[in-house]
Model the fold of this input.
Amino acid sequence: MYKALYRKWRPMTFDDVISQQQTTDTLKHQIIRGKTAHAYLFTGSRGTGKTTCARILAKAVNCRNMKDGNPCLECDICRDADSGALTDIVEIDAASNNGVDDIRDLRDAAVYTPERGAYKIYIIDEVHMLSPSAFNALLKIMEEPPPYVKFILATTEIHKVPATIASRCQRYDFRRIKAEDIAARLKYIASQEELDLTDDGAAMIARLADGGMRDAVSLLDQCSVCAEQINAETVSNAAGIAGRDYLYDMLDAITDSDTAKALSITGTLYDMSKDITRLCEELIMQMRNVMLLKVSPDTAGQLIICMPDELERLRSLAQRTETGTVMSRLSMLQECRERMAKVMNRRVEFEMSLIKLCGNVNNAPAAIDNSEIYDKIKQLEDKLNSAPLQRQNVQPQEAPIEVSSPVPDAEPVPDVDLSKVKQQDFVPFERWDEVLTEFEKVNPSVAGSLEGSYAATAGNVMFITAKHAIFTKLFHDNKSNAASLGEAIARVAGKRYAIRARCLTTNAEKKSMAEEMLKKAMDSKVETEIDNTPIN
Ligand SMILES: Nc1ncnc2c1ncn2[C@@H]1O[C@H](COP(=O)(O)OP(=O)(O)OP(=O)(O)O)[C@@H](O)[C@H]1O
Ligand SMILES: [Mg+2]
Ligand SMILES: [Zn+2]
Done:
């Protein structure tokens, strides 16, 4: 069976791990001297090698012929650890086993000495997901661990790990991997896989991956399915950079203060199911590019992620705008992006910001309050509706959640009102693991990005909550990904669902967002429903 490239190319020794040399050197040194700690905490952004290093460390301390601090990969311990047959190394995914009972099971098992190795090792991945009582139970064991037990905790969200736990661990911070290092590793993987990856293709993937090696390798995987030669163009197609004229049209409209045009482009994109949050993020990226071109025209080319012809359009935008204006527009967009995470009606939020962006930004746009803007949107809407380009009325109270599927044709029409579904209307979709298995058979690269995801249904709508942002990107930007996922779901569930995808936010974040949003909606007299989509 085809194995996703990022799994296949998981480093097996510390020497294979790139760009984390400080960490790997220290760990190797400790292993050579036999002076390893009782507990480790690996933190840092996604796909930088935490889980990978936890597994290598677990093997190395038990390996029968450890080589310079690396596991030999040949002895029975190394081999059984890799096949999952070694009971002395226990890996717990706290994302799905986060209860106090899971940790109690761990505690009960920890009283037995290791079967074959010198140590019994517990790798607790995504440790920040443990419930408070589970953390307490864990703390009890960590306070007085048996001498043969070691813990390796891994997390992207160190601030959610209680200080009592963190202070008992040796902590290592995994850094974002430099674009050059990612590109070099991609070239190596491509050569081993006999993939034709050009230098500019590798550089483009590396910049898009933003420091995460998993996303980089997944994108390479994705591209290898689409094209013979993987170059900047194929990468941009696979990542959805191609066909972004609308973005530049929008930026032109903003630069020319053409509010009606900017709103009309938004309306068209909205009707085409474009995710408005994504749109805002894309605008931020391009506005950032304009800023870079303003302040450092010579070097900006290397920092910007875009196609060559887009660079020309960006240059022209930079020429037509003052640096100060670019900066204030950028911060308006950033604020808009932040607010969008808190409100139900992202479209209205975005349109309000567009109007501000098109206005004279130096004339204290903050003075305009939301209700005035709302009126102005209405006026503009009326104007637009009488213009030749016909589009939907803005009806904020009926607007669907902005995460619609990119393949509306193949999907049933939702039989629930998406603007009104409440938490209690959702049923967890129990067979999600089966869907993932099915999906991995047909689309392993995208299936990889669904690691740690879950799904819930309401009527014929299935909401997928993904842990990795790259999934929502691959889902929204590439129709065939969305279609093959829909197929996999239909095969398992025996019926088709209208699919909505989103990236994970935590309960606490959601709650505060909802409260703030409700308050704001009341203040501005906008009728609004709270998004009560469950996230557990
Ligand atoms: N430092 C690295 N060197 C080489 N490959 C890496 C490195 N970091 C990650 N990878 C690649 O990315 C994949 C995922 O890495 P890993 O699971 O270790 O990431 P992680 O830091 O645990 O991420 P997450 O926080 O998302 O769990 C690996 O299988 C490997 O292909
Ligand atoms: Mg991990
Ligand atoms: Zn070994």
